């Protein structure tokens, strides 16, 4: 009965008969209707299901639980009460309420992005499938599949559920969505695998969401819906909890500090004021002004705009930011977990090495473009006679020609007149016209590119060496042979390169070229091509070939062996299967997915910046290890390679203990990737994770910053990510990290600018009840103007301050550090006290000078001085160490413009009647303005003198340590 089906079986370890028995089905007839009904009731439809997310109303309400906004709401209520009590219009309360609402909307917009990763996963389900039920073949929606169904698998279709193969005929499936590897995987129905075999090596299974490249087969469904490998990824995606970014944590801490400090001051001012028999209403007005002054209302907007500007700069460097906080998170990244294929490598097979009896060649170039240099040396005991031309090496010429003739792929590119460049056929409609493309097997394509680099034209070779028969490749033989008829070379227009190759070969009517596994090709050879002739192959030559093969394989290369056989007559069909014997050995070609040209440099830059690179791949561990060695991220003495199978047997504590020492993870599954990221995070690392497949989505979502590939990435990986690489390039991550560090440095720069002023304002306002001024110097409305406009506009300009020269020479920012770390808190407190004392001195002079005009306008003088002093402070905040006169004034022209613009706005509040009435200011005369500008300069001078003092102290300390 259906209720007894053991759905947790290790299906790839069971025989076909055991699988059929366990699932209680009939491979000849399929399931019966009662079985289908029972199983649908028990296991549900073959669909991915999502969890209910937060309601948008709940997200909006949550924005107003922020402690700073709560305090401002309290201030607005008290302010409205006091204004209405005195019969005044509550404009201060309305202004504060407007700021609260705007900040709430801003937070809601950032947080209310719907989670679309699961929706993208659902699109991967096949729409219809062919199923055998009750002895009849039917086509039905994939959602109706049940465990035990017999499903027909054909080229071009997407697999609709997880299944154990009952039959496979030349079946090849692309499983990149689950394993991350783009190469097709050959499938076999009759093989068994270990219970702990990695997902990519379960060759008798097919999985939902993967694509059939060629062949056909029959599978029995073993898992549907959320129990499939794709469903498990969906579960992992939904189980990942989104953590706050370092910036969000720091802003939360900042809010708490500001609110607690301001409430303590309010209590102290009211308490001391009442103890001294002060007026409660005046004390409340003072407290309201202090509370508004303490809260940097414009800070959330400035940070949001700063992050948005950072995203624009990153787009220019090919990085698209999907979530604003990710910009700053990049500045704190300590580990980059990178996929291998397509990110660190080109995702294009490139022939890099060739060996023949007498020559060794290293070949340059990138991708499939047939341009590259040959570095050739002659083998004679030791390497001698280097820097040879390909045309001086007959063995290599024949080897390259064999790679073209024994080949089923095409190398293509369009040009203006739609004719094939370099004799290659035109590019089909719909392909990228800006790059060379391989149509067919990438490994065979690498051989075409190799020949193209020597100017051996594909169209000419196959014209004069016309294929007339073929012995196809199979996984059992691991060989492919093509028989070519050698055409007449007598015509005058015969290319010289073709004549040369023909002259190097035996003068026969036909020739067989063979390629495949080096060991198997070599077994069939009894001769070796030596310069322009063939000789019997010796034991020492066989040993040398095996050594060369092992050397290339140890570098992570796919190695092909080549041989040929002269034929006087075309073999018959019965002779063909046994013709591949007594061959003449030609040589070896080493092919691999080569490193991106800029990857090694980018990894080196990140290492200098204190960022470690870890490779996580579904590929074989030897291949991954070879690439990691080339990148200088793997050293056998100090690093280790972990496979998915090893991770499977580790608990979380064990994995956490060795995660930091492991630089290469191979043959990993989606669960493993997620566990690796979590282990690194438990070790205190800030993790950036790259990925392009569905299998990467949970880890992308878990990472502090998930980075999806823009070109090869699936919709699922992009929706789960924080950032998308538009060029799929590791170097772009490093460039984006530099931008992230610059953004964070600028955020700290304008925080010290804004909060230094706010502390000064609070000190000045707090002193008024005890200095006998009779009123507060600033109203809540004026303070809002300062915090939003005269502070906010220059702060935005500081946000685009250029990166410092050593930004990528410093270690990453500690994600656990407080926003006030590295002297920022001390600077804010110190400058705030100086600013406050300066303002108190100004108020004393204006209020008690005996000048009636100054006495009457003392509040406007204070307000104006505070605003203008901020302009000079903004200029001084550009650098912690360089003096204002040492900075290039046009390196940040936005700051100059903002200072001039804000100063004009401030003066407008004094001399435009409507603004003067609304903000409660007075028009100042020349002496009063002179007083304002004179006192404003004092803060700038103090900051500049501090820089000189710190510079002197640093030199003195260095001199003392040198002694």
Protein described:
The chain is of the alpha+beta class and 963 residues long. It has 4 domains: 2-50 and 119-239, Calcium-transporting ATPase, cytoplasmic transduction domain A; 249-308 and 744-802 and 817-962, Calcium-transporting ATPase, transmembrane domain; 311-344 and 597-736, 3-Layer(aba) Sandwich (Rossmann fold); 355-593, Calcium-transporting ATPase, cytoplasmic domain N (3-Layer(aba) Sandwich). The strands form 4 sheets. Strands 10, 11, 12, 13, 16, 17, 18, 19, 20, 21 and 22 form an 11-stranded mixed sheet that branches. Helix 23 crosses helix 24 (670-682), helix 30 runs antiparallel to helix 32 and helix 30 (824-848) packs antiparallel against helix 35 (926-962). The longest helix is centred in the C-terminal third of the chain and has 42 residues, at 730-771. The model is unreliable at 415-434 (pLDDT under 50). This is ATPase, P-type (Transporting), HAD superfamily, subfamily IC.
Structural class: alpha+beta
CATH superfamily of the largest domain: Calcium-transporting ATPase, transmembrane domain
From the N-terminal CA to the C-terminal CA, the straight-line distance is 88 Å
Q: CATH class of the largest domain, anyone?
A: Mainly Alpha
CATH architecture of the largest domain: Up-down Bundle
Spans of 5+ residues with little confidence (pLDDT < 50)?
415-434
Query: Strand fraction band?
Result: 15-25%
Count of individual domains? 4
Query: What fold name goes in the CATH topology slot of the largest domain?
Result: Calcium-transporting ATPase, transmembrane domain
Q: Biggest sheet, open or closed, and with what strands and sense?
A: 11 strands, mixed
Give the overall average pLDDT.
83
EC number: 3.6.3.8
GO molecular function: ATP binding; ATP hydrolysis activity; P-type sodium:potassium-exchanging transporter activity
Enzyme class: hydrolase
Family: Belongs to the cation transport ATPase (P-type) (TC 3.A.3) family. Type IIA subfamily.
């Amino acid at each position: 009965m259906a209720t007894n089906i053991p759905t947790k079986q290790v299906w790839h370890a069971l025989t076909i008969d055991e699988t059929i028995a366990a699932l209680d089905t009939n491979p000849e007839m399929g399931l019966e209707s009662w079985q289908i009904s029972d199983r649908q009731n028990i296991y549900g439809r073959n669909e991915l299901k999502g969890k209910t997310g937060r309601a948008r109303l709940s997200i909006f309400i949550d924005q107003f639980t922020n402690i700073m906004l709560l305090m401002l709401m309290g201030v607005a209520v008290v302010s409205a009460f006091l204004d209405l009590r005195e019969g005044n219009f509550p404009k201060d309360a309305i202004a504060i309420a407007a700021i609260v609402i705007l900040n709430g909307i801003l937070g809601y917009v950032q947080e209310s992005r719907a989670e679309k990763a699961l929706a993208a996963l659902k699109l991967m389900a096949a729409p219809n499938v062919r199923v055998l039920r009750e002895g009849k073949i039917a086509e039905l929606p994939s959602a109706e599949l049940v465990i035990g169904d017999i499903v027909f698998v054909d080229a071009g279709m997407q697999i609709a559920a997880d299944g154990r193969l009952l039959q496979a005929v030349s079946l090849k499936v692309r499983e990149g969505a689950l394993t991350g590897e783009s190469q097709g995987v050959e499938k076999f129905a009759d093989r068994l695998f270990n219970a702990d075999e990695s997902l990519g090596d379960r060759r008798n299974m097919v999985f939902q969401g993967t694509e059939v490249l060629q062949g056909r087969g029959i599978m029995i469904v073993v898992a549907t819906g959320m129990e499939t490998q794709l469903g498990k990824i969906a579960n992992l995606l939904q189980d990942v909890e989104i953590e706050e970014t370092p910036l969000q944590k720091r802003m939360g801490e900042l809010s708490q500090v500001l609110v607690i400090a301001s409430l303590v001051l309010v209590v102290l001012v009211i308490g001391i004021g009442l103890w001294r028999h002060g007026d409660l209403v005046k004390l409340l007005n003072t407290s309201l002004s202090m509370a508004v002054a303490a809260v940097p209302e414009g800070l959330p907007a400035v940070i949001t705009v700063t992050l948005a500007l950072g995203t624009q700069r990153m787009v220019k460097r090919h990085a698209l930011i999907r979530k604003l906080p990710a910009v700053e998170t990049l500045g704190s990244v300590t580990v980059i977990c990178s996929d291998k294929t397509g990110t660190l490598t080109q995702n294009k097979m490139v022939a890099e090495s060739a060996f023949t009896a007498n020559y060794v060649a290293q070949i340059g170039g990138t991708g499939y473009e047939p341009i590259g240099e040959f570095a050739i040396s002659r083998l004679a005991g030791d390497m001698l006679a280097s820097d040879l031309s390909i045309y001086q090496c007959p063995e290599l010429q024949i080897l390259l020609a064999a790679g073209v003739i024994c080949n089923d792929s095409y190398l293509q590119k369009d040009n203006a007149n739609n004719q094939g460049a370099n004799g290659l056929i035109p590019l089909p409609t719909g392909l990228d016209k800006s790059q060379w493309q391989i149509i067919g097997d990438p490994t065979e394509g690498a051989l075409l590119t190799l020949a193209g680099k020597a100017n051996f034209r594909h169209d000419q070779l196959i014209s004069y060496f016309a294929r007339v028969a073929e012995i196809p490749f199979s996984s059992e033989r691991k060989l492919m042979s093509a028989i070519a008829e050698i055409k007449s070379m007598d015509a005058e227009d015969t290319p010289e390169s073709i004549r040369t190759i023909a002259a190097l070969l035996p003068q026969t009517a036909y020739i067989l070229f063979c390629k495949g596994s080096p060991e198997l090709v070599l077994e069939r050879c009894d001769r070796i091509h030596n310069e322009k002739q063939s000789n019997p192959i010796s034991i020492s030559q066989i040993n040398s070939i095996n050594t060369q093969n092992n050397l290339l394989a140890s570098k992570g290369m796919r190695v092909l062996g080549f041989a040929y056989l002269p034929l006087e007559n075309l073999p018959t069909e019965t002779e063909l299967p046994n013709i591949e014997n007594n061959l003449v050995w030609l040589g070896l070609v080493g092919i691999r997915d080569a490193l991106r040209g800029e990857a090694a440099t980018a990894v080196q830059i990140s290492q200098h910046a204190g960022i470690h690179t870890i490779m996580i791949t579904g590929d074989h561990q030897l291949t991954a290890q070879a690439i990691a060695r080339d990148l200088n991220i793997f050293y056998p003495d100090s690093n280790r390679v972990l496979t998915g199978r090893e991770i499977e047997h580790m608990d979380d504590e064990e994995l956490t203990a060795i995660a930091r020492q492991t630089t290469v993870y191979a043959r990993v599954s989606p669960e493993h990737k997620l566990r690796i990221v979590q282990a690194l995070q438990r070790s205190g690392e800030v993790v950036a994770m790259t990925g392009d497949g569905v299998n990467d989505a949970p880890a992308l979502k878990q990472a502090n910053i998930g980075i999806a590939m823009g070109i090869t990435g699936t919709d699922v990986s992009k929706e789960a990510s924080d950032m998308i690489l538009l060029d799929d390039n590791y170097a772009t991550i490093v460039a984006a990290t530099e931008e992230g560090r610059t953004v964070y440095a600028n955020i700290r720069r304008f925080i010290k600018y804004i909060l230094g002023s706010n502390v000064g304002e609070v000190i000045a306002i707090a002193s008024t009840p005890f200095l006998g001024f009779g009123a507060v110097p600033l109203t809540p409305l004026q303070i809002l103007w300062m915090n939003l406009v005269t502070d906010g506009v220059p702060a935005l300009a500081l946000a685009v301050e250029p990166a410092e020269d050593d930004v990528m020479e410093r270690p990453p920012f500690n994600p656990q550090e407080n926003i006030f770390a590295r002297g920022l808190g001390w600077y804010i407190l110190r400058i705030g006290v100086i600013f406050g004392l300066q303002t108190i001195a100004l108020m004393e002079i204006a209020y008690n000078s005996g000048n009636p005009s100054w006495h009457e306008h003392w509040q406007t003088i204070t307000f104006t001085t505070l605003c203008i002093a901020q302009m000079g402070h903004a200029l001084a905040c550009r650098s912690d160490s360089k003096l204002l006169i040492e900075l290039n004034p046009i390196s940040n022209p936005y700051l100059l413009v903002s200072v001039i613009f804000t100063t004009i706005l401030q003066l407008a509040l004094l001399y435009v009647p409507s603004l003067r009435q609304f903000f409660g200011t007075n028009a100042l005369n020349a002496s009063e303005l002179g007083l304002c500008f004179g006192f404003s300069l004092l803060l700038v001078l103090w900051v500049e003198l501090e820089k000189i003092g710190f510079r002197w102290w640093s030199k003195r300390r260095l001199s003392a340590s040198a002694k």
